[in-house]
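Please check this today:
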Amino acid sequence: MNNHYITIGKLCSPHGLQGWIKIASHTSPLTNIVDYKPWLIKTANGWHPLDVDDIHIDDASHILAHIKNVNDPESAKLYTNKTIGVSRSALPSLTNHEFYWADLIGMTVINESSELLGTVDHLMETGSNDVLVVVGKKRHLIPFIRNRVISHIDAEKKIITVNWDTEF
């Protein structure tokens, strides 16, 4: 994905008989996805606006959307597994020491001895702290704990320095 768009979720499976579709949100909390507009979907031809005319939240984990002029499950099925994104400009500004997960993905990770661990493949939430999933010669699960494990993030050079042994 290029730097102009940030992934915020995914269209999942159709729900019901009137064209609704389940949403997997990548925002925190999950319901924040409805605050970002306009939604775009990723296709083979790039990013395109998605005209959502209604959203329903059953609880904090079940989000349903209705796409304009999609009124049956077969039509909704055409949107299954499409990525939902927004323009980076639609997101709140961050301070110098804050990062969106999307900005960390693909960064090179080295330890304090300048040994290459790999690149950030993705992040995951564990409840106590987020975890960098770093893929290189081996896979490292590195807790995202600033000033203890995460020593420095150089956004310009796209390098994360960590207090981490290559054998972990």
The helical segments are 73-77, 101-104.
